[in-house]
Design brief:
Number of helices: 7
Distance between the termini: 36 Å
Strand order of the largest sheet: 2-1-3-4
Helix content: 25-40%
Order of helices and strands: HHEEEEHHHHH
Radius of gyration: 24 Å
Largest sheet: 4 strands, antiparallel
Number of strands: 4
Shape: extended
Strand content: 15-25%
Length: about 200
């Protein structure tokens, strides 16, 4: 079995690549991968969630150690997740396996820039509306109106299902208190100095 390259190795290879790529081709390739991963996430949660429809979320994150790396993180929710920069939310139907995009938010800097602009090109119209609703504090109201849906936010979902959530938590096992480590059990003759230790 061939050894899989690490993210760091791939990043170094990409940084040294001088080939000029068509941005449109790169965009299509990324989109194809995202759709496949969303479908996989939706199918994995079909046995976990009893509901016919639920939400799939893609969050784009950077890497704190490797410059230029973009990590795609996928999750599923029974409620509309809190909006945040670099997030896309989709509605997934378990029976039809169809995915419908509800919103896509760019980076925080792009969100602020677009929201401050009076006019944007037609292809940015949805993004501007989402950003404006985000900063106005009326995001979920806008999404419901835009897609003609009545889905609940996280807070609304928790309020509506509070009794069920409390009952499910009563079945959790209490791990009990853990005993703290007794440092008095350490004796000087048990500590080995690695500089003087030698293999037998």
């Amino acid at each position: 079995m061939a050894k899989r390259k690490t993210a760091g190795e791939l990043a170094l290879k990409a940084a040294s690549d001088k080939t000029k790529y068509d941005p449109l081709e790169v965009g299509y390739a990324l989109t194809e991968d995202v759709v496949a991963q969303l479908q996989l996430c939706g199918e994995r949660h079909s046995t976990i969630f009893d509901e016919e429809e639920y939400f799939l979320v893609l969050i784009i994150a950077g890497d704190p150690l490797i410059k230029g790396i973009r990590r795609h993180k996928y999750a599923a929710f029974l409620h509309m997740p809190k909006p945040r920069p670099e997030q896309s939310c989709y509605l997934y139907n378990k029976k039809t396996k169809k995915i419908k995009r509800l919103w896509t938010l760019p980076s925080a800097m792009v969100m602020a820039t677009i929201s401050e602009m009076r006019m944007v090109a037609e292809k940015w119209r949805n993004t501007k509306n989402w950003c404006d609703a985000f900063y106005a504090g009326k995001f979920f109201e806008f999404i419901r109106k835009q897609h003609n849906v009545k889905y609940l936010s996280e807070r609304e979902f928790s309020d509506a299902h509070s009794e069920e959530i409390i009952k499910s938590r009563s079945n959790e096992v209490d791990p009990g208190l853990t005993e703290s480590f007794d440092f008095s059990k350490i004796k000087v003759d048990h500590i080995v100095d690695t500089k003087t230790a030698r293999a037998a």
